[in-house]
Amino acid sequence: MYVKGICNHTIPTIAVEFCTKEIELKDGTLIKVQLWDTAGQERFKSLAMNYYRKASGILLLFDVTKKTSFEACEKYLEDIRKNSDKECEIYLVGNKIDLEEQREIQKYEAENYANRENIKYIETSAIKNLNVNEAFEMLLNDIYEKKSKIFEQEISEEKKNKNINLMTNPQNSKNDVCCI
After folding, report:
1. Mean pLDDT of 145-158
2. 125: which DSSP letter?
3. How do strand 6-7 and strand 2-3 relate by DSSP bridges?
4. Please, what is the angle between helix 67-83 and helix 107-116, to 10°?
5. What pTM does this model have?
6. Total count of domains within the chain
7. DSSP one-letter code for 2
8. Beta carbons within 8 Å of 128's beta carbon, 6+ residues apart
9. Which terminal Cβ of the chain has fewer Cβ within 10 Å, N or C?
10. Beta bridge partners of residue 120, listed in sequence order
Protein backbone atom coordinates (compact mmCIF):
# COMPACT_ATOMS: atom_id res chain seq x y z
CA MET A 1 0.00 0.00 0.00
CA TYR A 2 1.27 3.47 -0.83
CA VAL A 3 0.42 5.95 1.89
CA LYS A 4 2.11 9.04 3.34
CA GLY A 5 4.94 8.90 0.80
CA ILE A 6 6.01 5.39 1.79
CA CYS A 7 5.73 2.51 -0.63
CA ASN A 8 5.89 -0.96 0.85
CA HIS A 9 6.46 -2.81 -2.40
CA THR A 10 8.09 -5.92 -1.02
CA ILE A 11 5.16 -7.25 0.98
CA PRO A 12 1.87 -7.96 -0.81
CA THR A 13 -1.40 -7.13 0.90
CA ILE A 14 -2.77 -10.03 2.93
CA ALA A 15 -6.55 -9.83 3.41
CA VAL A 16 -7.15 -6.11 4.17
CA GLU A 17 -5.03 -3.13 5.18
CA PHE A 18 -6.48 0.14 6.44
CA CYS A 19 -5.22 3.68 6.94
CA THR A 20 -6.40 7.27 6.89
CA LYS A 21 -4.94 10.12 4.91
CA GLU A 22 -5.67 13.83 4.55
CA ILE A 23 -5.89 15.04 0.97
CA GLU A 24 -6.45 18.55 -0.34
CA LEU A 25 -8.98 18.80 -3.15
CA LYS A 26 -8.55 21.09 -6.12
CA ASP A 27 -10.85 23.71 -4.54
CA GLY A 28 -8.66 23.77 -1.42
CA THR A 29 -10.97 21.65 0.73
CA LEU A 30 -9.00 19.37 3.03
CA ILE A 31 -10.64 16.00 3.58
CA LYS A 32 -9.71 12.98 5.63
CA VAL A 33 -10.28 9.69 3.83
CA GLN A 34 -10.26 6.07 4.86
CA LEU A 35 -8.27 3.83 2.53
CA TRP A 36 -8.97 0.13 2.46
CA ASP A 37 -6.52 -2.02 0.51
CA THR A 38 -8.03 -5.42 -0.22
CA ALA A 39 -5.94 -8.30 -1.49
CA GLY A 40 -6.45 -9.35 -5.08
CA GLN A 41 -5.98 -13.07 -4.50
CA GLU A 42 -9.01 -15.26 -5.15
CA ARG A 43 -9.05 -16.58 -1.57
CA PHE A 44 -9.78 -13.04 -0.29
CA LYS A 45 -12.43 -12.23 -2.89
CA SER A 46 -15.48 -12.66 -0.62
CA LEU A 47 -13.81 -10.55 2.06
CA ALA A 48 -13.10 -7.78 -0.45
CA MET A 49 -16.72 -7.72 -1.65
CA ASN A 50 -17.84 -6.65 1.85
CA TYR A 51 -15.79 -3.47 1.47
CA TYR A 52 -17.39 -2.54 -1.86
CA ARG A 53 -20.80 -1.96 -0.25
CA LYS A 54 -19.95 1.26 1.56
CA ALA A 55 -17.26 2.54 -0.81
CA SER A 56 -17.68 5.97 -2.39
CA GLY A 57 -14.82 5.24 -4.77
CA ILE A 58 -12.69 2.34 -5.90
CA LEU A 59 -9.29 2.19 -7.56
CA LEU A 60 -9.22 -1.10 -9.47
CA LEU A 61 -5.53 -1.85 -9.97
CA PHE A 62 -3.86 -4.21 -12.40
CA ASP A 63 -0.24 -4.89 -13.23
CA VAL A 64 0.62 -3.67 -16.75
CA THR A 65 3.29 -6.39 -16.95
CA LYS A 66 0.80 -9.24 -16.43
CA LYS A 67 -1.98 -9.90 -18.93
CA THR A 68 -3.77 -12.14 -16.41
CA SER A 69 -3.92 -9.24 -13.97
CA PHE A 70 -5.64 -7.07 -16.58
CA GLU A 71 -8.01 -9.87 -17.63
CA ALA A 72 -9.08 -10.33 -13.98
CA CYS A 73 -10.36 -6.74 -13.93
CA GLU A 74 -13.46 -7.74 -15.87
CA LYS A 75 -14.65 -10.07 -13.11
CA TYR A 76 -13.64 -7.65 -10.36
CA LEU A 77 -15.51 -4.83 -12.07
CA GLU A 78 -18.59 -7.04 -12.36
CA ASP A 79 -18.37 -7.83 -8.62
CA ILE A 80 -17.81 -4.17 -7.75
CA ARG A 81 -20.86 -3.08 -9.71
CA LYS A 82 -22.95 -5.86 -8.23
CA ASN A 83 -21.93 -5.12 -4.65
CA SER A 84 -21.39 -1.35 -4.51
CA ASP A 85 -23.62 1.69 -4.60
CA LYS A 86 -24.54 2.81 -8.11
CA GLU A 87 -22.98 6.22 -7.32
CA CYS A 88 -19.58 4.66 -6.55
CA GLU A 89 -16.77 6.22 -8.62
CA ILE A 90 -14.51 3.62 -10.23
CA TYR A 91 -11.06 4.16 -11.70
CA LEU A 92 -9.03 1.56 -13.54
CA VAL A 93 -5.35 1.91 -12.60
CA GLY A 94 -2.52 0.35 -14.58
CA ASN A 95 0.40 0.01 -12.17
CA LYS A 96 4.13 -0.71 -12.69
CA ILE A 97 4.62 1.61 -15.65
CA ASP A 98 8.25 1.87 -14.57
CA LEU A 99 8.69 -1.62 -16.06
CA GLU A 100 7.95 -0.47 -19.62
CA GLU A 101 10.16 -3.15 -21.22
CA GLN A 102 8.06 -5.87 -19.50
CA ARG A 103 4.70 -4.33 -20.38
CA GLU A 104 2.07 -6.78 -21.65
CA ILE A 105 -0.90 -4.39 -21.64
CA GLN A 106 -0.53 -1.28 -23.75
CA LYS A 107 -2.02 1.99 -22.54
CA TYR A 108 -4.47 2.16 -25.45
CA GLU A 109 -5.84 -1.32 -24.56
CA ALA A 110 -6.61 -0.29 -21.00
CA GLU A 111 -8.03 3.07 -22.13
CA ASN A 112 -10.33 1.33 -24.62
CA TYR A 113 -11.55 -1.05 -21.93
CA ALA A 114 -12.13 1.81 -19.47
CA ASN A 115 -14.05 3.78 -22.12
CA ARG A 116 -16.26 0.77 -22.90
CA GLU A 117 -16.99 0.35 -19.20
CA ASN A 118 -17.55 4.07 -18.64
CA ILE A 119 -14.83 4.37 -16.02
CA LYS A 120 -11.70 6.50 -15.93
CA TYR A 121 -8.16 5.26 -16.48
CA ILE A 122 -4.79 6.33 -15.11
CA GLU A 123 -1.35 4.73 -15.11
CA THR A 124 0.94 4.70 -12.08
CA SER A 125 4.18 3.43 -10.67
CA ALA A 126 4.02 2.91 -6.91
CA ILE A 127 7.73 2.21 -6.71
CA LYS A 128 8.65 5.49 -8.47
CA ASN A 129 5.70 7.43 -7.01
CA LEU A 130 4.38 8.35 -10.47
CA ASN A 131 0.73 9.46 -10.55
CA VAL A 132 -0.09 7.71 -7.26
CA ASN A 133 -1.24 10.84 -5.46
CA GLU A 134 -2.87 12.05 -8.68
CA ALA A 135 -4.97 8.88 -8.89
CA PHE A 136 -6.26 9.41 -5.36
CA GLU A 137 -6.81 13.14 -5.91
CA MET A 138 -8.70 12.63 -9.18
CA LEU A 139 -10.93 9.98 -7.61
CA LEU A 140 -11.60 12.08 -4.51
CA ASN A 141 -12.36 15.21 -6.53
CA ASP A 142 -14.86 13.25 -8.63
CA ILE A 143 -16.49 11.81 -5.50
CA TYR A 144 -16.64 15.25 -3.86
CA GLU A 145 -18.21 16.83 -6.96
CA LYS A 146 -20.76 14.03 -7.30
CA LYS A 147 -21.70 14.10 -3.60
CA SER A 148 -21.94 17.91 -3.67
CA LYS A 149 -24.36 17.78 -6.62
CA ILE A 150 -26.46 15.12 -4.90
CA PHE A 151 -26.52 17.20 -1.70
CA GLU A 152 -27.50 20.36 -3.61
CA GLN A 153 -30.24 18.43 -5.41
CA GLU A 154 -31.60 17.06 -2.12
CA ILE A 155 -31.66 20.57 -0.61
CA SER A 156 -33.43 21.90 -3.71
CA GLU A 157 -36.02 19.11 -3.54
CA GLU A 158 -36.53 19.72 0.18
CA LYS A 159 -37.17 23.43 -0.48
CA LYS A 160 -39.68 22.60 -3.22
CA ASN A 161 -41.61 20.31 -0.89
CA LYS A 162 -41.96 22.81 1.96
CA ASN A 163 -45.19 24.76 2.10
CA ILE A 164 -44.62 28.26 3.32
CA ASN A 165 -47.75 30.32 3.54
CA LEU A 166 -47.55 34.05 3.88
CA MET A 167 -50.66 35.88 4.89
CA THR A 168 -51.54 39.23 6.32
CA ASN A 169 -52.50 39.05 9.94
CA PRO A 170 -55.82 40.87 10.11
CA GLN A 171 -55.15 42.00 13.69
CA ASN A 172 -51.94 43.84 12.69
CA SER A 173 -51.55 46.69 10.28
CA LYS A 174 -51.95 45.76 6.64
CA ASN A 175 -48.17 46.07 6.05
CA ASP A 176 -47.22 43.43 8.62
CA VAL A 177 -46.73 39.91 7.32
CA CYS A 178 -46.44 36.77 9.36
CA CYS A 179 -45.46 33.27 8.39
CA ILE A 180 -47.59 30.26 9.22
Report:
1. 69
2. B
3. antiparallel
4. 20
5. 0.70
6. 1
7. E
8. 98
9. C
10. 91
